[in-house]
Structures are given as C-alpha cells and as structure tokens.
Amino acid sequence: MNHITPAHCVAARRALAALRGAFDEAAAELAGRCSTEGKLSAQGLDAHQVDAFELAWAASELLAAQTALALLRADSSALDTQLALLFAAEAGTSVLARLETLSLDLDFPTAALDALRADSEWLDLRRAAGNAQALDAAGLAVIAAQGEVGTLVLDEPHAMAQETFRRFAREVVAPQAEKIHRDNLTVPESLLQPLREMGVFGLSVPEQYGGSSPDDREDSLLMVLVTEALSEGSLAAAGSLITRPEILARALVAGGDSEQQALWLPRLAAGNPLCAIAITEPDFGSDVASLALKATKVPGGWRLNGAKTWCTFAGKAGVLMVVARTDPDRSLGHKGLSVLLVEKPSFDGHDFTFRQEQGGMLGGRAIPTIGYRGMHSFDLSFQDFFVPDANVVGGAAGVGKGFYFTMAGMVGGRMQTAARACGVMRAALRAAIRYSEDRKVFGQPLAEFPLTRAKLARMGARLAACRQLAAHVAGLVDRGEGRMEASLVKLLACRSAEMVTREALQLHGGMGYAEESAVSRYFVDARVLSIFEGAEETLALKVVARSLLERALGLSSGTQ
User: Which of 35, 135, 421, 497 could form a cystine bridge with 526, CB 3.0-4.6 A?
Assistant: First the structure.
C-alpha cells in the first residue's frame, strides 16, 4: 500500500473541509426555508423532510470521515491509513452527491462543489484510495489483520476490559448464540449470572451506588467497548443486555430523587432486578410526545390503563421504566408525561399475566420476530395497574418531566446502539474473512479474487470509521456534549451494519442463507438496529436535522 502518501491525507482533509463549508451553506439555506422570524417552524420542517433527511445523512458521513482522518497519527498503521482514506473518499463522494441534490431544491451556490469535483488533488485521492489496485491491496491487508480494523488508542484499564469481554463473548456467548436464536429461547442464567458478576449491568451507574462509572463523570467509552465486544458474540443474547439498565440508570441520575437513586441504582448495577423500557405505543411509535398510556391519580399512587409495545425483555425484567401520561390534557404533549417504575415478577416464557393484590393486571405477549431473539420484545396491556407515588421518578417534582428524563437516558442508549452495530459488523467481517479463505470457487480460494478483496476492504473501512466515531462521540458525551452526535453515530452505524452484514452473507453464498450459518443471524439481527432506540427517519428529521438547523440559525438546541 505504498502508493498512499502523506500528501493524500492532506488532500483528503482539504476536500472534507471544502465539503464542510458547502454543507454549512446548505444548512443555512434550509434553515431559512424552515423558519419563521428566526425560529424553526414544525410546518416548515415537515415541508422539507426530504431535504432534511439528506442533510442529516451528509452530516453523519462527513463527521465520520473527518474523525477517521483526525485520528491518524505518525505511527498509524498502513492499514488504518488506507481504510481512513478509502472511507473519506467514498463518504466525500456521497456527501458531494447529497449536497448537489440539495442544491436542486434550495438553489444555494454550488461553486465550491463544482471546484471540488474538478480538483486534481481530490481526483488523485479517489484514485489512490479507491481504484481496483488500491482496493485489492486494502482487502489483502484486512484479511491479513483478520478484521482487526479501526484502531483505538486505549489506556490499560479500557484495553483490559475490552479483551476480557471479547474473550467472554468468544468462549461463553458465541457457543450458545445459535441455539438461543434458532429455538427462540430466553437469555439463560448461564449468560446472565456471569455478566452480573462481571458488573456489566452497572456500567452507567456511579461507583458510589455500586457501579463502575466514576462518581464525578461518565465513562461512556467503557460502555461502548464492552457493548461492542458482547455484541460480536450475540446482539440479542448479550450485547443488548446493557441497553435497558443504561437508559434507566441515566434517567435516574438525571431525574431521580436521592432516595430513588439510593434504592434503585445499586440494584440495577447488580442486575437484580433486570429491567425493561416501556416507551413505544401501538399508535405512536417513535413519537414520544404523543404517548397516551393513561396514568390516573389515586390515593397513594397512580392507576395505569392502556398499552405499550416493543418492550424488549419485559418478561424477564423485574422492573419496567414506563413513560405514561399523568396529565389528561393531551395538548400539553411531552409536558404531560412522567416516568413510573413498574415492579413485577420475572417470567421466562413468551407470555405472562401478573395480577396485583390491589386488583390491577399487567399482561404481556412476546412478538414473533425474524431476528433479535433471546430477549424478546413484548406487547403489554395495563388494566388498573397500581404504581405507588414512590415509584414516580423524581417524586412529585418529577411529574410532567418524564420526557426530559427519558431523553437523558436515550442519549446513552443511542450511543450504545451504535456500539452494538459495530459489534455485529465486526463479527460479520471476521466471519466473511474466514469463509473466503476456506471456500474454494472455480479452483481457488474465494479470498484470492479481486472482487472479494474489494468487498472486504469496503466493509473494513466502514467498520473502522464507525468504531472510531463511536469512541469520539463517547468522549463528547462524557464532557456533557454530543447529544445530537449520539443520534448521528447511531444513524450511520446502524445503516452500516445492514450493509456490512449483507455483504458478509453474500460472500457466503448459499451457506449464508442457511440458518446454521452465524452470518444469517448477523444479517437479520442487524436489520432491527435502524428501527429501535429511535427509528432512522425520526432521528434524522427530529433530532439530527433539527439540531443542525438550529445551529445554523444560532439557536440553542433543546433537542435531545
């Protein structure tokens, strides 16, 4: 790969800087179209959804490419450099096309785009990083590295944690993953108990409450590394176990009173009880502000009536974080919501019914799915289910603030979902490498064909960029920033997981379509990532694009 020179890195950074300038112009123009008297208009945003969606995707690709280049150092490996430049060239080409598409609607100046398209340095970079010879060389290097791409510079504690959980995923999770998936089992105690002992449920719980997060700050990088490692073994049977305590712990830290934090955070850290998050409703999906599950005030607490859906791990969980409407005035939107902690027995099956002494009832039924099996997502029905006042997060002061507590939790959940996507990508890439080395087609190993190597190069470049962006955003979140970027990295990594697992399955040919092949599980599991923890469209339009447009207008974003 000696055709890559330092000049190519300089050219890549210059090209992306030019694209950033053009992007800012596009964002400013779209913000003007979507605003009235200097404020964003919901009607204006809805009228420009297609443009806003393109802007959000351009932002994700551009930030990922700039981050990958920024992390290159003098001692970076030839493979890291090659993959960063390959991703930068392909992402830059995509961003250029998206901005040109936006210019058709917004009619902003395109001189910078025209200049970049004709720039000799940009063309030379694309040729050096992405022509057939370069892809072949990069693919060979990805094979030689066995998919170890996207180097992160880690201190000793983080490196040890990564290796510990990768070994656990390899030796304990992976051998059980296929049976859990194919037989649609619930995650067994043979996985849950060791993970409890390893402290995996307390990654976002402060040390003073029995977790591993520092008391004076967060350690989102640790959560990202552990999640990626476990997700490589199995998304549903291990990697996703952290998401629910991650969301609830952050919500309690953000809004719980001191008694609630002292009671619940140590229990969550210990994984006893396990928890689930009940937000989505049949009629509203990702539209959290419109949720309708009714909570009626009664002496000593609240009565819940209504339905929730897609509540993952609701059967096994002993506590549900339920977002309910505590103010009957629907016009209040998100200001009428509160978070209630619903306690229930743990059930192993695919359906359950729990009847309270107070007369209330909670029923659940697992939703059959094509993938993401093991934790099971449930439809829930509440009938006069009683929740005591002590279980309203924030107490009396927390009534009506549930939306904000939920969004505080979702920042970590979305970033963690990006890490899950990286784990699935890593598993798929490594499986594709192994199979391509072993499988012979037309008399020679599949790995010796240029097209195979080109596919592996592109898969490796995308995984590397997503891993590095996830680590970068973890640092932003730990500094109290990065709310929009947490959604942005989820957007990119989850779509990338679909692309990488698709190519991995394709390289397996007919065997990839067989259930006995792990790559078939990676493929169906990856498809859910762009849907849950905020659907792709909702994140792009309501979080990422809105935040970008508010920044363009110079407004302080309240979007979380």
Answer: 497
